[in-house]
Each structure stands twice: as C-alpha cells, then as structure tokens.
Amino acid sequence: MMLWFAAHQGANPWTGPSPDYPSFASIWDGRWYQIVALTGYPSELPITDDGHVGENAWAFMPVYPGIVRIVMGLTQLPWEIAALVVSVPCGFGAALVFYRLMREVLDRRTALFSVVLFSVAPVSPILQVAYAESLYLLLLGIALLLVVKQRYLTAIPIICVMALTRPSGLAFALFLLLHLVHRIAARSRHPFSLSAFVRLCIAGIVSAIMGFAWLLIAWGVTGSLTAYTDTELAWRSSYVGYGPLVPFEPWIDGANWWSERWFGVGIGAIALVPLLALVVIGLLSRSARRLGITLRLWIVSYLVYLLAVFFPQSSTFRLFAPLFPIAGAFAVPRSRVYRTAAVVVSLVLQWAWLWACWQVSGYDWTPP
C-alpha cells in the first residue's frame, strides 16, 4: 500500500514526485525527528508574527531520534534508511511482546489472532515509517507486561525511557494509581504485601516525575516554563487559535470545531456523550473482560489522558495506537467468518488512513 501511494505521490514539501519508499516513509513528523537527530533542540523558541510560540522541535521527544542518530553514526546510513532500520524491527518486537502480553490473559490461538489484528490495524503502517510509535509501543508492551507480572521495580527503567519516547508518563502514572487502588480493594482475594505496595508506589512516583521531565528539560534549556506546552499548543492554533492548556477543554473545543465544520452548528460536549458511552459499554463487555482488570485500567487511563490534553484531529487516529491491548477483546470471537471479515475491514481502513492522512495533496490539513 505504501509503495502504491508513493508511486502516485506528487511533489510535496518533503519529496519530489513518486519518491522511493524510505523518502516517502520519512515525511510529516519524520522530518521533525530528523531535525532533532541532526541539530537538536532550539535554545530560543520561534515566535510568530502575532507573538506566539510557533511550531518547533520541542514537541518531539529525544529517544527515537537519538537512537536513529546512533545508527547513522555506526553505519553511515542516511536518515531515511536509518530511521527504518530502527522502526521496522521495533514494530516486529512490539508484535512479539504483545503476544506475550496476550498470553497472560488469553489462550494461545486467541493471542495469536490478537497479534494479527495488531499487525493489520488501520494505523499499523505507522510502525514502518520514521515515527517513534513502533519504539514506543515496544516499550509500552514491555511495561504493561511487567506490571501484569507485578514486577514493578523492573518496569521503572522502561517507564523512564518510554516517557521520553512519546508523552506517556502521566498516563502511566494514572494507570499505576488505579492499579494500586484495585490491588488494595482486592487484597482479600489476592494478597498484596507491604513490599509490593512500596514497589508499586515507587514505580508510580517515578512515572509521575517522568511525566513532567520533558517539560522541565525544555524549561531548563529555553528559560520558559511553558516552552513544551506552548509548542504543543502551536499545532492546534490553526483550528481554534491560541489559548492556555485547560484540562479536558480540547475535546469540547474540538467537538465544536468539527460539528461546525460538518454540520454548521457547534454541539460541544454533547457529541462526546455517545462516544464515551460506547467506550464504557465496550470495556464492560464479555470480550473485554477477558483482558482482565489491569489492561482495561490502562485503556481507561490513556483515554482519560487523551481527553485531558489532546485536541482531536486527524493525528488522533495514530494517538489511539497505545490502546492496542483492546485488540485482544476483538480477537475473542472464534468464528472464521468474523475473523476473516475483521482482517479485511482492517486492511480497507489501512488504505483509507493512508489515503486520508499519509499521502500529501496540495495544502494538506490532515497530518497523520
């Protein structure tokens, strides 16, 4: 699919017409990661003509471009190829770790089909481009597996690296807090020792600290406490203008913006009610319960984090990727017809996602 879209891609801000695969896989945010790998981060924030912080490299965390830069130094490969040398094996590793994670809660055949759904998911092409998602999902899968196995201290270094790969420290801290509450509530059925309590608390505190680490690093380099959040807000300015980051407000603003665009009237939070209801019903379904409470708590935590800080637009589809444990719930039905249909629908949606988000058409306002 990527090769087909590359062959039909016209000239764009990143490549000439009909680029080769590595070049086509390095467009969009891949160029920002390349900037970080080659030049690092600015000590002075760019300011727009109207006095606001503009788009800049501080929105992109350092672990993925740092690893690619090391590969470039060791192999003398150009960025486009070195990025794929990192991304593709990490995507494969994420699939392997996901299988191990699913085997904690599902039988072997269902766990294997979970990996199929993970691998053909609508946004799975993101695992083979110059984005940090494949590395992040590998780290996230390992961290979730360690928590499921209650190896909390072992998870700490993974959490630290993960939090500097994609924004995730606060979401994972919330997850560990909910996991702690559940373990305390269920201690009569599942023993919860004092040492386990301490280890889990330490992991949660570290995760919370790492959730603010990049903000503090950006502050230390630029001298602006809000350097990171102002940079992130610059990306939504073309939709709703500039404004402060108010938790949970972005999705209401987004619902108003999208409903006004498509229907001519802003309906705000009302539009979110049926979506949230579907999420609750889904997580309480029989198939989702097969995942166990721990993985469902991660899904809840990450969704709360998205609702709190992200503005819904085309890249939101990619931001749903960390919800990948839900593939295990979709894999539970054993009907061959269902499973075949699930794969076919996923492949069709892959094509739709690449058409709508990855290919570039003129002034494209649907970034992946």
UniProtKB/TrEMBL annotation:
Keywords: Endoplasmic reticulum, Glycosyltransferase, GPI-anchor biosynthesis, Membrane, Transferase, Transmembrane, Transmembrane helix. InterPro entries: PIG-V/Gpi18. The chain crosses the membrane at residues 81-99, 111-132, 152-177, 197-221, 262-284, 291-311, 317-333, 340-361. It is found in: Endoplasmic reticulum membrane. Pathway: Glycolipid biosynthesis; glycosylphosphatidylinositol-anchor biosynthesis. The keyword Transferase applies. Its main location: endoplasmic reticulum. It is a multi-pass membrane protein. This is Mannosyltransferase (PIG-V). It comes from Paramicrobacterium chengjingii.
